[in-house]
Amino acid sequence: xxxxxxxxxxxxxxHLYRRRRVTSGIQGPEILVDGRSMLLFCxxxxxxxxxxxxxxxxxCRGAETxxxxxxxAHLVCGHSxxxxxxxxxxxxxxGRARALxxxxxxxxxxxxxxxxxxxGDSIYQDRLNHASLIDAGVLSRAAFKRYPHxxxxxxxxxxxxxxxGEAMVVSDGVFSMDGDLAPLTSMAALCRRHQSWLMVxxxxxxxxxxxxxxxxxxxxxxxxxDVPILMGTLGKALGTFGAFVAGSEELIxxxxxxxxxxxxTTALPPAVAEATRASLRLVIDERWRRERLQxxxxxFRSAVGQLGLPLMDSRxxxxxxxxxxSAQALAWSGxxxxxxxxxxxxRPPTVPEGGARLRVTLSAAHSxxxxxxxxxxxxxxxxxxxx
Length: 387
Ligand SMILES: *Cc1c(COP(=O)(O)O)cnc(C)c1O
Description:
2 domains, seven-stranded mixed β-sheet, 15 helices, 14 strands, 17% strand
């Protein structure tokens, strides 16, 4: 048996050790972190809905109506009217026949991929896909092909060599650590030509992109025929918890029969479904949240560009600043933390070796003054070789 302590020590020395912070207070740009008031630029609450009074009130009413928990899996007796109504609203929102709720995005990805693929099939993934998609591919036992980030020529060659079984291309819509969009228009054309499924995980696009907030597909004008399987999460822009897959009647019925992470798990609390219905209303009705976000993104990019810090090609609220080494990323996030600002340092293996970065995320709830505080702090960062 190997020594766990040795491995932990190695992580410390490599600047890869991770630790948790304890937060208190209602989610929003400023909360208590380890007892100290901090300004957050690291949350995925892009529209500022996690702490919204209407969403919180719906959660409370939901608990009074349904209790604290769902009591069982959906197929036993855990599927409430609240779940059912939310599924119908999500189907409308995404312009698809049906939607199916999962308890987390991780489980939605595992369940969907493993329900549709098995031995003898093939799955094609961008190298920067989210860990849950990678794990889903491994668990499915399909032949696993990865292509360099957004490399459509390689994907084309891989698809030309596909074997006889089923094929699926699956990708983040917005890449979670880079903030850029997948070239989904090309992917949809390739998948059609090679009779492959296309699945998009739009965890960071839902609520944020598109006129009505329906996400990356709406932004790129792609239909349900172009992308037959759409996965979205509820814990990011929607501010609550859980996830869904949207698609055709037969897709959803298949998942209900076969997705093990759907069948063998407790349904999320109905109160969470009620809270999500309230936040979905706000996503649809309050377009100004997306406009405000875009305004903050433009200001941030122009100011950080002037500071000479390396930004990445992103027009989404995920705005990484490349540090290179883990030590540099940690030093920067440490300097910001001393000034009361929390930005996470993202290090390998979450990003490739040499690609450590500050992952700045913006929220419609940030004020101009809060963004100014971040920009002032970034201007004071020490750039250059570290000991
Ligand atoms: C957050 C995230 C998930 C996981 O969703 P959870 O609901 O947090 O489990 C899946 N895919 C992507 C791209 C994500 O960013």
